[in-house]
Amino acid sequence: MSSESLTLGELFGEVRSRFAEGGLDDPATEARILVAGLLGLTFTELVSRSDMPVAAEPAASIRAAIERRLAHEPVHRILGEREFYGLSLRLSPATLEPRPDTEILVDAVLPHVAELAKRVGRIHILDLGTGTGAICLALLHECPQADGVGSDISAEALKTASQNAARNGLEERFQAIEGSWFEAIEGRFHVIVSNPPYIASSVVTTLAPEVKFFDPPAALDGGADGLDAYRAIAADAGRFLHREGILGLEIGYDQRVAVTAIFEEAGFFLIESVKDYGRNDRVLLLKQNG
User: Residues of 226-238 as b/e, b for ≥16 C-beta within 10 angstroms?
Assistant: First the structure.
C-alpha cells in the first residue's frame, strides 16, 4: 500500500501488526503511544480521525520508528519525552526514563511535604541523582510552597532537568547542581529524595535490552551488591536534613531489610515502607533519631 493513499487507521493497524509480529507484550498500546506521539494527536483523535490521510513524510517517519522499536529502543525514547505525574518530561541519553513505579515515591512523600509546609512555611527539597528532574519537579508542582535542588554527576542530565523545569513553569523554584551525592550541596533540607542506582553489577547485563542498552549505566549499576548508593547517601544525609525532615528512597524489590539496616546504623529509623503495583517493596520513608 502506498504512503500517498494511507489513512491514519490503516497506518495505526500496520504499526500494531508489526509490533505484534515482533513479540512486543502490548502491541496495541505501544502502537497508540507511538503514532499519536509522532503525529501530535490525542488518543481520542487517533480513533475519531481514522479516515484522515497521512502524507508520505510522516508515514515514513513512523515506519522508521517501527524499526527502532523492534530493535528494542523504548517507545518513549523514540518520542524523546514521557509523562510523569502529569508533567511532560524530555529524555536524554544521560537520563533514566522515569517509570510509573517511581510515582509511588512522590505519592508517599507528598503528605509529609504538605504537613511540613503547613508547619514551617517555605520548604526546601533535595533530589539526589535527579536525572530528568522527575521526582523533584513533581513535588514542586504539587507544593507551591517548596523550592528544590536537583543534583547529578551528569552535566547533560542536569541540562535536561533544567529544560524540564522550564517546560513545566518551575524554573524559578528549581536549581541544578553538578556533583556526586552531597559533595556540592550546602545547607539543610526538609525533604531529601532519591531514586539511586540499585541494581547489582552482575545483574545489569541480564536486564531487558530496553533497559541495559538505552538507560545510562550510571543510573542502573549500584555496585557489587546494589547498595553502594545507599551507603553513600546514609553517610552524609544527617548533616543535610533538618531534624523534622524526611528522607524518601526508591529501592529494589528485595532491598528493604538491607537498606533499612544501612540507614538505622547511620541514625535513621523507618517510618513507612510502600509497595509498588506488583506488590514488591519499592519506597522507604525515614527520619532521624532524636
Answer: bbbbbbbbbeebb
Give residue 112's Cα distance to chain centre: 20
Question: Within 13 Å, how many C-alpha atoms sit on residue 73's CB side?
Answer: 16
* Beta partners for residue 268, in sequence order: 288
| Residue 4 buriedness (CB in 10 A; 0-12 / 13-18 / 19+) | exposed
Contact 182, 240 (CB under 8 A): yes
> Between the CA of residue 47 and those of 79, 86, 208, 285, what are the distances in Å?
20, 23, 31, 42
Please give, one letter per residue, the 3-state secondary structure of 194-211.
Answer: ECCCCECHHHHCCCCHHH
**Cα 256 off chain centre by:** 20
CA 78 – CA 70 distance, rounded (Å):
11
Q: Dihedral sign, CA of 98, 103, 108, 111?
A: positive
Q: Roughly what angle, to the nearest 10 degrees, separates helices 155-167 and 134-142?
A: 30
pLDDT per position as a tens digit, 221-264:
999 999 999 999 999 999 999 999 999 999 999 999 999 999 99
Put simply, whether the predicted model's pTM sits higher than 0.90 gets the answer: yes
C-alpha cell at 6: 494511507
- Structural domains in the chain plus CATH codes: 3-71 (1.10.8), 92-288 (3.40.50.150)
97 close to 276: Cβ distance less than 8 angstroms? no
Q: Strand, helix or coil at 253?
A: coil
